[in-house]
């Protein structure tokens, strides 16, 4: 397939890539869910993965975050600026999962278990269905996300049992960090409320705040605006923009709300039946005939270019206006013609029969 694509060297996804998906293929028995998919996520960008239902978007997420092991392909996560091509190729030739040096490093996610992807590669995610701990408070949900550093500070529970100074300090820092993200999510006043008691939109934001408490380099959000009203969608947009601008966290999201996608996304990838059909910025993608075809259900052979559609609009409008004129003129023409005589109305009673007359001169025959 000749995939529509627009790449500009000025875009982050062209020169400063945090995540590369290369020739990703995922099969479930005889079902080909994702077919030879490649795309890049720019560092500090909001990248949207969109497409009709069943296009393979969540399958891609599950491969990136380690829930599925892809049938084929390579998924590279980078810490540090640039493409780090030499490091990636050297690591690929070995059997190792990652190579780190201080704050920089490369990670081959298809080789790593899911918990290592979260812990080492710093990839966090949310799900289509909210998965909070409903019986815990909002604050406790965010402390759970900091379980690993707290366990290390407690020397694997012994420090917590005896409340040692190192653990007390780590716990205080964890509470402060959780309170910070509750405030950014607009939930600081509900910190002690059970998560299950929060409104739906607040639960969505709490789930994102919990993911941010893992200090991710890449935040993967699966339909974060699903079920939100316009006000809640606006609050979500503000939170995502804050995460991107003030924390430099790259965001990869799946979303069906095109208003949200077009407003906040720097880069959009469109899937259809597991294959990439378009790749570029919002202005490019929304005018791509292949994208229009995928969403409207038109065969590719029937898709015209945007220029052809625009050229046809005047003639289509003229034909429609002519038809409307004919319809309005028809009743007026009928009133000018002489009315046809109405047929005689039938009598409602019985029909009278004529009395037979005698043809002869005499009386009765």
Description:
- This protein is α/β, with parallel strands linked by helices and 365 residues long.
- The protein folds into two domains: 1-122 and 216-317, 3-Layer(aba) Sandwich (Rossmann fold); 131-214, Rossmann fold (3-Layer(aba) Sandwich), CATH 3.40.50.
- The protein is built from 14 helices and eleven strands.
- It has helices spanning 12-15, 57-64, 85-93, 114-119, 138-144, 147-153, 158-161, 165-184, 200-212, 230-247, 258-264, 282-286, 289-296, 306-336, and strands at residues 17-28, 31-42, 46-50, 72-79, 98-101, 104-108, 123-125, 218-222, 250-254, 267-272, 275-280.
- The strands form two sheets. A six-stranded mixed sheet has the order 7-8-9-3-10-11, with helices on both faces.
- β5 (98-101) and β6 (104-108) form a beta hairpin.
- It is globular, with a radius of gyration of 34 Å.
């Amino acid at each position: 397939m000749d995939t529509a694509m627009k790449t500009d060297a000025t875009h982050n996804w062209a020169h400063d890539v945090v995540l590369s998906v290369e020739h990703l293929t995922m099969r479930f028995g005889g079902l080909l869910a994702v077919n030879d998919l490649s795309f890049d996520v720019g560092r500090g960008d909001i990248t949207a993965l969109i497409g009709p239902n069943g296009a393979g978007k969540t399958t891609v997420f599950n491969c990136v975050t380690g829930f599925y092991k892809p049938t084929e392909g390579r998924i590279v996560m980078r810490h540090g600026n640039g493409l780090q091509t030499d490091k990636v190729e050297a690591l690929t030739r070995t059997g190792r999962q990652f190579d780190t040096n201080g704050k920089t490093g490369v990670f081959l996610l298809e080789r790593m278990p899911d918990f290592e992807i979260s812990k080492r590669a710093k990839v966090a995610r949310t799900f289509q269905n909210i998965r909070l701990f409903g019986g815990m408070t909002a604050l406790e949900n965010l402390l759970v996300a900091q379980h690993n550093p707290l366990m290390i500070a407690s020397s694997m529970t012994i420090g917590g049992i005896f409340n040692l100074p190192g653990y007390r300090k780590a716990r205080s820092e964890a509470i402060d960090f959780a309170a910070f993200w509750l405030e950014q999510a607009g939930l600081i006043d509900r910190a002690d409320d059970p998560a299950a008691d929060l409104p739906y939109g607040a639960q969505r934001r709490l789930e994102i705040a919990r993911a941010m408490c893992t200090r991710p380099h890449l935040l993967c959000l699966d339909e974060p605006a699903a079920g939100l009203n316009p006000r809640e969608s606006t609050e979500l947009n503000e939170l995502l923009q804050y995460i991107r601008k003030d924390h430099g966290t790259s965001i990869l999201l799946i979303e069906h709300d095109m208003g949200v996608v077009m407003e906040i996304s720097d880069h959009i990838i469109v899937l259809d039946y597991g294959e990439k059909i378009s790749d570029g910025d919002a202005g490019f993608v929304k005018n791509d005939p292949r994208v229009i075809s995928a969403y409207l259900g038109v065969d590719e052979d029937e898709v015209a270019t945007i220029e052809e559609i625009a050229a046809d609009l005047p003639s289509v409008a003229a034909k429609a206006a002519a038809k409307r004129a004919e319809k309005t003129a028809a009743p007026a023409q009928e009133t000018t013609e002489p009315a046809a005589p109405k047929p005689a109305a039938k009598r409602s009673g019985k029909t009278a029969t004529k009395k037979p007359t005698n043809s002869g001169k005499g009386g009765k025959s």
